[in-house]
């Protein structure tokens, strides 16, 4: 695409693919995770550029792989290269040892190493440099997530005049917790260099505004509703909440396919006794997997009459395994699964099936479709797309969703899901019992409402409402390209 035609430029930490060494050559896999699920279809349909780190810190020439990934994805990708030290300080350090745990209210996991901050700023400036090579003044630059909070100010310093938006996929913490960040004022001031700042929920925006009022001088907040304004000196910044979603039609159509129906049938055939309770998460301490396992154990203790009639399938996708705390979590989960299975397994019935790998889309949907109950209990989560994917894939319209009240999806789903406090082991255990015993009429009525709401507010609604709120106008302002 030429620089003078109007483009959507996405910047995120990672480019949307995974490169793996396969003997002497490279294997290219589509990326996983919420952001990729959310944005890939939009760029494919609308055209645009995605800027990010290819995920490798060596010196290998991977330009051919990036072109191949662009061709396969149907949109352009431009790399931001990081060396091993950048990865250590900016990515593993400030992003994943400071911002990730702190923004999920888990300050005890933080490592506030002073050397991380300068590297974070340098890499944010490097992103701004690559953005500057691609952006024309009429383009819209949409920057994603906590790795790039400071890219807004680096874009301005580089003299790029295109309008900019930022979207935070993870929660924004309450004042008392954010206040612990050594670079709190710098982060807030950098964020104010974006034209539009988007959060997942009103809760996150409320927290952000409270922090602005505390740490930024002369800030005025004006308006109410989904998008409001902050006035800081000469500048006006829009601040909104935009709960992210999924491509509902794609999920529900694939879930209805023969391939997924067969996969679901085989899963139930392998677990013939009673109902399947499903947990699906990236390996992460924010997802609350050990508490969930304890709740399931409590349920098994209290309901011996339901032994053999219920099985928990816990799918965990490998993630950030080179960070020690993630490896420790994996060991902890495996220890707990082994202990619970050792205690309750009887001939012909294993209470927990544990899967530790990435699944293909049809396989994942097979599990969604086969499961009578979804048990999603993050300690805190920006949104939790799995909750929405489960509903879209529930072709039988009889599944029950048990959801953490601390997931960003909770306000949208609170009437029809069973909401729980993930730290309350007995409450989660009772919720499993409630879901197990809920009659079909109630299950159907709840699931139909959930499906209607996810279908109405899908990923296209999300993109559209974000772009409408931005200075760039609506999605229809961007040219559609045929791919
Ligand atoms: P994540 O923390 O990655 O995303 P989530 O929203 O649940 O969390 O998305 C996970 C994605 O991974 C889903 O799209 C799911 O389909 C996929 N996935 C899960 N298990 C898989 C498996 N075994 N194999 C293959 N794919 C699998 C971050 C925030 C979230 C926020 C999203 C989007 O932490 O809170 O919802 O971004 O904004």
UniProtKB/TrEMBL annotation:
Q: What class of enzyme is it?
A: transferase
Note whether Glycosyltransferase occurs among the keywords: yes
Which reaction(s) does its UniProt entry say it catalyses?
ADP-alpha-D-glucose + sn-glycerol 3-phosphate = 2-O-(alpha-D-glucopyranosyl)-sn-glycerol 3-phosphate + ADP + H(+)
The record's section on InterPro entries has: Glyco_trans_20
EC numbers:
2.4.1.213
Q: Enumerate the UniProt keywords alphabetically.
A: Glycosyltransferase, Transferase
Part of which pathway? Glycan metabolism; glucosylglycerol biosynthesis
Q: Name one GO cellular component term.
A: cytosol
Q: Name one GO molecular function term.
A: glucosylglycerol-phosphate synthase activity
Biological processes annotated in GO: trehalose biosynthetic process
Question: What job does the chain carry out?
Answer: Involved in salt tolerance by producing GG-phosphate from ADP-glucose and glycerol-3-phosphate (G3P), an intermediate in the synthesis of the osmolyte glucosylglycerol (GG).
Family, according to the entry, reads as follows: Belongs to the glycosyltransferase 20 family.
Under which name does UniProt file this protein? Glucosylglycerol-phosphate synthase
């Amino acid at each position: 695409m030429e620089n003078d035609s109007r483009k959507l430029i996405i910047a995120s930490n990672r480019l949307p693919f995974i490169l793996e060494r396969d003997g002497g050559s490279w294997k290219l896999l589509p990326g996983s995770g919420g952001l990729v699920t959310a944005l890939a279809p939009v760029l494919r349909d609308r055209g645009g550029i995605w800027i990010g780190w290819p995920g490798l810190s060596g010196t290998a020439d991977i330009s051919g792989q990036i072109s191949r990934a662009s061709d396969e994805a149907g949109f352009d990708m431009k790399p931001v290269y990081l060396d091993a030290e950048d990865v250590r300080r900016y990515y593993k350090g400030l992003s994943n040892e400071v911002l990730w745990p702190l923004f999920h209210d888990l300050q005890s996991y933080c490592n506030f190493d002073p050397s991380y901050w300068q590297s974070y700023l340098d890499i944010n400036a490097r992103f701004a440099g690559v953005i500057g090579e691609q952006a024309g003044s009429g383009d819209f630059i949409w920057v994603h997530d906590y790795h790039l909070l400071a890219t807004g100010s680096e874009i301005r310093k580089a003299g790029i005049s295109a309008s900019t938006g930022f979207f935070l996929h993870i929660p924004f913490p309450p004042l008392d917790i954010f206040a612990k960040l050594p670079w709190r004022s710098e982060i807030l001031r950098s964020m104010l260099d974006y034209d539009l700042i988007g959060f997942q929920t009103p809760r996150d925006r409320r927290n952000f505004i409270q922090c602005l009022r505390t740490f930024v001088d002369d800030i005025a907040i004006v308006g109410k509703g989904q998008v409001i304004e902050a006035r800081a000196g000469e500048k006006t910044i829009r601040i909104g909440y935009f709960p992210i979603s999924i491509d509902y039609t794609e999920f529900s159509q694939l879930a209805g396919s023969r391939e997924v129906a067969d996969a679901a049938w085989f899963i139930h055939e392998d677990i013939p006794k009673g109902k399947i309770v499903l947990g699906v998460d990236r390996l992460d301490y924010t997802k609350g997997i050990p508490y969930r396992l304890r709740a399931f154990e409590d349920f098994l203790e209290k309901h011996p009459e339901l032994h053999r009639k219920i099985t928990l399938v816990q799918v965990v996708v490998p993630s950030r395994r080179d960070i020690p705390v993630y490896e420790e979590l994996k060991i902890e989960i495996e220890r707990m699964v082994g202990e619970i299975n050792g205690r309750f397994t009887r001939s012909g019935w294993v209470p927990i099936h544990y899967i530790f790998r990435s699944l293909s889309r049809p396989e994942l949907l097979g599990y969604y479709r086969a499961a009578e109950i979804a048990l999603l209990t993050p300690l805190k989560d920006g949104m939790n797309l799995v909750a929405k994917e489960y509903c879209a894939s529930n072709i039988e319209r009889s599944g029950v969703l048990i959801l953490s009240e601390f997931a960003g999806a909770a306000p949208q789903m609170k009437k029809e899901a069973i909401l729980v406090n993930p730290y309350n082991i007995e409450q989660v255990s009772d919720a499993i019992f409630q879901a197990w015993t809920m009659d079909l009429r109630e299950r159907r009525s709840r699931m139909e409402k959930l499906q209607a709401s996810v279908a109405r507010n899908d990923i296209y609604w999300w993109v559209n409402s974000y772009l409408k709120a931005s200075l760039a106008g609506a999605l229809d302002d961007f040219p559609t390209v045929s791919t």
